[in-house]
Amino acid sequence: MKKLGAWIAAIAMTAAGSLAFAQYPTKPIRVLVPFGVGSSTDIVMRILAQPLGQALGQSVVIDNKPGADGVVAAVELVRHPADGHTLFLATNSPLSAAPHLRKKVPYEALKDFTAISLVGNYTFFVVVHPRLPVKTLPELITLVRKNPGKLNYASGNTSSIVMTAMLAALAKLDMTHIPYKTEPPAIVDLLSGQVQLMISSYSTVAPHVESGKLRALVTTLPMRSPLLPQVPTIVEAGMPEFPIVPWAGMFGPAKMPRNVTERLNKELVGLIDRPEVRDQLNKQAFLGRSSGIDELTTFVRNQYDIWGKAIRDAGIQPD
């Protein structure tokens, strides 16, 4: 009788799980984006939102929650029920970097989120205002060394903060950091000349580089971008390869039902692997890349350690 009871219970649980899978989602899905409208992460989510909504049978609503290196959006997510109707297009900012850049964040990066799928990697460039008399990274380094403390650099996310600090540490540069909550307002001040340089994602600076309003010196990736093939890599310019990789992935609150997570993973993997979607992402110099659920969980743990070491090696002290 005990075996029969256990068998019936197992069937009931399987049936309940299948029913939940079939019923999900039951209302529009809200995706929190940790940066402002027009940022690279926002653009990526806008490419994914409509086809993801079509696949799930519910509209996908983007909710921009910029601030505190993605911490604001992360905190917003963990306050919601883990039913799959509130998701988070997280990046390395809140999950890999912020826990090391701040003395304390109000969540546990490796415990308070349910991994769904990796979404891809960003391409970053070192860009300068064209009035700055430099056309290569070595020329920029020479100029900064001759003018210690006189040049301002902007940052609009943790990738920019950490990579610029790494560059400054490696090349022994003395510059003034002007932080911004997100990239678009930083670009406005870079265009006006209030700041002279920035390490920024492609989608934010591309139109300004193409129009000549900004000058790209190098890409931080170990290979040239096919969108700006004339721009050398940081390695070609004589600097070592950066150990950190800017990334984005989809997450839910902790303890989200596995069947809901699997449904979301299935739809996201299929979506990101579509040639037309990859093409749209590639046009933003965003390298679309999906993953399994457990694969993303392992990836997040590894990136947490890698970013922590890079931040310590760059001499960045937590605020």
Secondary structure layout:
Elements: H1 2-23, E1 29-33, H2 40-56, E2 60-64, H3 71-78, E3 86-91, H4 92-101, E4 113-122, E5 124-128, H5 137-146, E6 152-155, H6 158-171, E7 176-179, H7 183-192, E8 197-201, H8 202-211, E9 215-219, E10 247-253, H9 258-272, H10 275-282, E11 286-288, H11 293-313
Parallel strand pairs: 1-2, 1-3, 6-7, 6-8
Antiparallel strand pairs: 3-10, 4-10, 4-11, 5-8, 5-9
Helix pairs in contact: 2-9, 4-11
Overview of the structural elements:
The strands form 2 sheets. The protein has a 6-stranded mixed beta sheet with strand order 2-1-3-10-4-11, with helices on both faces. The chain has a 5-stranded mixed beta sheet with strand order 7-6-8-5-9, with helices on both faces. The protein has 11 helices and 11 strands. Helix 2 (40-56) packs across helix 9. By secondary structure, it is α/β, with parallel strands linked by helices. The chain has 2 domains: 21-122 and 245-313, Bordetella uptake gene, domain 1 (D-Maltodextrin-Binding Protein, domain 2); 124-219, 3-Layer(aba) Sandwich (D-Maltodextrin-Binding Protein, domain 2), CATH 3.40.190. Helices cover 45% and strands 18% of the residues.
